[in-house]
Design goal:
Layout lengths: L11 H16 L5 H16 L3 E8 L2 E8 L6 E3 L3 H9 L3 E3 L17 E9 L2 E10 L7 H11 L6
Antiparallel strand pairs: 1-2, 1-6, 2-3, 4-5, 5-6
């Protein structure tokens, strides 16, 4: 396991390329998915200084707050509500350049300006979503989508 992260200041793609092997090292040998989600959140928050990085876990009819880094957050989100609930319902990545333009956006923090949500899928079911918020407009692109999906694939889901 790595003791400290090596944070680099570079373009976004280079930052992901630097942090992914470090996340792999953090997860190596740890089977607990919650612990691994926690370390993923911490590593992403440290590298990119996002406003909020966290997982919501599917529990019956709700997304329930899981491991996260950042300000306090909404505890439960229902299917189809807000960006996270919509990503869950549609089983697809949502990139929102301006959260104020997303119908039904749930404002857990008034500081959030843009967002990306990646569904975590196991056995063709969404089991969680990874939610990342930024204080800047239009912070996320297909670069984030590609690398965040790669990071999610490191989770050993049953």
């Amino acid at each position: 396991m790595a003791d400290d992260l090596r944070i680099i200041l570079a373009g976004k793609e280079e930052q992901y390329q630097s942090i992914i092997p470090q996340i792999e090292a953090l997860l190596e040998g740890e089977a607990d998915v919650i612990a691994n989600m926690g370390n993923i959140c911490a590593a992403l928050k440290e590298q990119f200084n996002f406003l909020w990085v966290g997982f919501y876990l599917v529990k019956k009819d709700d997304l329930v707050l899981g491991p996260f880094q950042g300000p306090v957050a909404c505890t439960r989100i229902t299917l189809g509500k807000g960006v996270c609930g919509t990503s869950w319902k549609e089983k697809k990545v949502l990139i929102v350049p301006d959260v104020d333009e997303f119908p039904g956006h749930i404002a857990c923090s008034s500081l959030s300006r843009s967002e990306i949500v990646i569904p975590v899928i196991s056995n063709d079911r969404v089991v969680a979503v990874l939610d990342v918020d930024s204080i800047e407009l239009d912070s996320f692109s297909n670069v984030d989508e590609r690398f965040l999906n790669q990071i999610i694939s490191l989770l050993k889901l049953s």
